[in-house]
Batch of 3 targets.
Target 1
Amino acid sequence: MHRLTENKIIIITRKTRLDEVIVKFNTIDQAKFYVENLGMDFSDYQQEDHIYKRAVAKVEADLQKIARVQVIDRSYVPNFIFAKNDMIVVIGQDGLVANTLKYLDNHAVVAINPDPVRWDGVLLPFTAPDAAAIVMELYNNKRKRKEITFAKIETNNGHMLYGVNDIFIGPKSHTSARYMLEVDNRKEQQSSSGIIISTGLGSTGWLSSILTGANRIAGQKHAAKRYKGFDWDADHLCYSVREPFPSNVTGTELVFGNIKKNNNMKVTSMMAENGVIFSDGVESDCIEFNSGTMATVSVADKKGYLVI
């Protein structure tokens, strides 16, 4: 087959709900029995699976006419070695796009919404039939890329983590986190249910829900309005402390603000156990944050790029 480029296209996919329940219960009949016993519609699982896999097959077939194609599941992304000239195509949802971006190095991502009826897809501007044309335009430098600012966290014991949407620092379970927070040349010992550090990309997600709840509790009239967030390429991050608890030794002054480009935040753990740091909702890929661990949060030099 004659291909238009020697560069490789990597398609990132995910397991559907149907795939996951079949893995859990071994057969489709057992999976169906389980799902229907919970009062859910098993045909919806099947329809979602069919639409998703049809989209993957369409994208793969079309892109094979352009270049060599490799399809990999999201579980392999953290350890996959991407070549400099690889083209990356992600077949949604939004979370898959975010969790792919942080493992790339200046690669532009073409994000495909496989099922626009089911998912709005804030980060998924294209559909399966668009893929080949978009990739060709990108190869020919006729497509713009939107820059995305990342958050970065480094600990004093040598761990590092990037956040595309947000980073969580706090307790593993429903307990209180104890730590010392230092930002903007101010320091405060706190007890809370954790800190959310949000990028511009993630500012309409977890951060937005926190602000909406806080405004509603405070009786603000505009609480029902959706928080519009800040720009994806903004040179700052935003932090919010969840449920800060005031006491004789813990304060509630430094509970919300920005982390600027050259002004890092430092958080030092005072928890004997169960402290964690994770990014983009993936708690399984976490850093331990127990007593004596100091985490430095900063605006990352590394950027992400989404094709628009």
Note: The two ends are 30 Å apart (CA to CA).
Target 2
Amino acid sequence: MNRRTLLHRLLALGTLPLAAACTRASTPPTPSGTATVASLGLAPQFWRDKVSPAAFKVLFEHATEPSGSSPLDHEKRSGTFVCAACYSPLFLSAQKFDSGTGWPSFTHAIAGKTATQSDFRMLLPRTEYHCARCGGHQGHVFDDGPQPLGTRWCNNGLALGFVAQNDALPALRG
């Protein structure tokens, strides 16, 4: 390990107490209707050949797609947004709104279909949410959404599929 790598790692370790203190002070409560992250007990590799490589990176390696790249951000039809891996229904079109961020955004998830955990990847804590069924990473919950709930569930479009109201929901995978 070179000196620069060692210094970066030591610096990162020094931020852990700060991150823990920030979590206690400012992590928003778990949104209602959610649980802690759980899954079917399947390893992420199970899903590798069931989704595109880009979706796999978002769902199981916590990548983020570029803002404005998802056609689902502009989806206006009535229907259901489902997990791209296991097809579990996560959001109804009535819950979607245009947040102006470039990612599909929702006021809330379908009760019991998502699971949350704290995320420190940006140093300050955020509430990350996953599909409660397969554990696939969907996005983050922010407190700048429309009233009356005030939450914005910012989702990666690659982590979602869309089923129009008149179409049949696909069978769950896994």
Note: The chain has a mean pLDDT of 80.
Target 3
Amino acid sequence: QKAAFLFPGQGAQYVGMAKSLVDSLAAARQLFAQAADILGYDLLDYCWNGPAERLNATDVSQPAIFVSSLAALEALKQTEPHLIDSVIATAGLSLGEYTALVFAGVMDFADALRVVDCRGKAMQAAASATPSGMVSVLILERPQVEQIVQQARAHGVVEIANLLCPGNTVVSGELAACDAVEKLVADQGGRTVRLSVAGAFHTHLMRPADTHLAEALAQVVLRPARLPIWSNVDAQPHTDPDEIRALLVQQVLSPVRWEETMRGMLAQGVEAFHEIGPGRVLAGLLKRIHRKIDCRNWAA
């Protein structure tokens, strides 16, 4: 079976994650030990013990999900190593793209963690500069959501941030505009969920995080990918390091085109998916895109 490995993004974290992996796997322990050296704090302690408010903060949750997902990948390599050979493509949701890049050999663990650390801090700073948020719009389809976003702009900056699956579109914007979106969605018979994130990710409100990220990426070596990585920005597969670097910078300000990415992978012959890391968000989205496709979860 031709397979794709998928890696989760922010929001998948939970207190207690990676505990069983670290308890049972030397390779997982090693990743967290290396992470503590690079970050200058005990990331594992936040993963295991929280508090939730700190683990959920962007500057901690991004490195935490990244390292936990790679620990889960180590477990997969040990228990079912043959699966690695069946992988023809990989992708990650937002932050998860960095985990996919390490898996595909584009960046090494230490360099990628330094970039993820910088990205988390820069996005946290951008979020703190403008009170903003993200709202998941359920039931309604994309054209209706686009119309609502246009109307809500009377109250402030608001943009479509994630195109996840049919009936699940996330918008990001200033708080008053998010409030307006919630009211307009309710009027049209849709449902909303306010996401517990620091700010308006994947919009222009994230400036200057993109500049800080570009500086961090300029300092690390990116190698050609050994298998295609599907970018969130254009929902296309890439192996060229310079293209990948440019797309990673754009990704901070651009919508995540996840549904298109999954459909593109299916069209290219992917027959089975593996979600590697904390949570089961990606398996849930996939079920809405293709009800019968197989998606195994390798939990962190």
Note: The chain has 14 helices and eleven strands.
